[in-house]
Amino acid sequence: MATFVFFHAHPDDECIQTGGTMAKVAADGHRSVLVVATRGELGEVADGFLDAGEPLGLRRIRETLESAKVLGVDRVEFLGYVDSGMMDTSGNDGPYSFWGADIESAAARLAAILREVAADVLTVYDANGGYGHPDHIQVHRVGVRAAELAGTPSVFEATMNRDEVFRTMREARETLPPEQAAEIPDFENADFEFGVPEALLTHAVDVSEFVGTKRESMRCHRSQISDEDFFLTIPDNQFARVFGTEWYTSRRHTRGDGEPFITDLLAE
């Protein structure tokens, strides 16, 4: 039995980015630990959603625990930092923001967990945090350093296959009803870098068996993912196409032109 630690920035990141892998890890009889850097205090929430006086961060902790149960996670930890908001906003400099955290100090907190659970595998994000979010970039920096401190042997950078996402979204806009097609984000023309080119990816984990579980875990994050959200309204076949494979890069592995993707995070 191996121990996987999945390190994420905010509640709901775990199900979107690595939910299928987490469910697969559980199904394969391994242990999984979810570590979340912040409580997602700066997430957007609809008026009237929270109870009177209820902090968003506490609701998001509860949602994370529900999601973790769906995904078969054995343990959940929060590092205790505060959501930094999007890049170049006031939250970046807020008290205890994760973006402003000292990397060595934050890495020491995560490394303590890695040592305690004897982690075999740690997942972080790519160096750009997938799309340039400061807390996601910090997950990469802190996670890589924590693995060095703890001696964790395998580190994988969870990311998006930029080319496949663009292909799928183009097809969806052409086939879905106009009102649904209009809800699909236009990442190709965004003012930020999205994901990683396919040629640079090393691992493709087939989680098609677990897309239903992944979608159920998304539904746990009701404060952020409503029933009308893109994640929950696209048809099942489109959802499986977009989310049925989870993509990673590894510094320990290489993949030459035309070579197949590695499909197992435990492969040597």
Task: Explain the overall architecture.
There is one protein chain. This protein has helices at 13-27, 56-71, 103-117, 134-150, 162-175, 178-181, 211-220, 230-233, 236-243, and strands at residues 3-8, 31-38, 75-81, 121-125, 154-159, 203-206, 245-250. By secondary structure, the protein is of the alpha/beta class. The protein has a single domain (3-250), classed as LmbE-like (Rossmann fold, 3-Layer(aba) Sandwich), CATH 3.40.50.10320. Strands 3-2-1-4-5-7-6 form a seven-stranded mixed β-sheet, with helices on both faces. Strand 4 (121-125), helix 4 (134-150) and strand 5 form a beta-alpha-beta unit. Helix 1 packs across helix 7 (211-220), helix 2 packs antiparallel against helix 7 and helix 3 crosses helix 4 (134-150). The longest helix has 17 residues, at 134-150. It starts with a strand and ends in an 18-residue tail after the last strand.
Give a short summary of the structure.
The chain is α/β, with parallel strands linked by helices. Helix content is 38%, strand content 16%.
Features:
38% helix; Rossmann fold; alpha/beta; 268 residues
Oligomerization status of the protein chains: single chain
Shape: globular
* Order of the strands making up the biggest sheet: 3-2-1-4-5-7-6
Roughly what is the average pLDDT, rounded to an integer?
93
| Largest sheet geometry | 7 strands, mixed
Please tell me the total number of domains. 1
User: Could you tell me the number of beta strands?
Assistant: 7
Structural class: alpha/beta
Q: For the CA atoms, what is the radius of gyration?
A: 18 Å
Number of helices: 9
Give helix and strand order, one letter per element, not per position.
Answer: EHEHEHEHEHHEHHHE
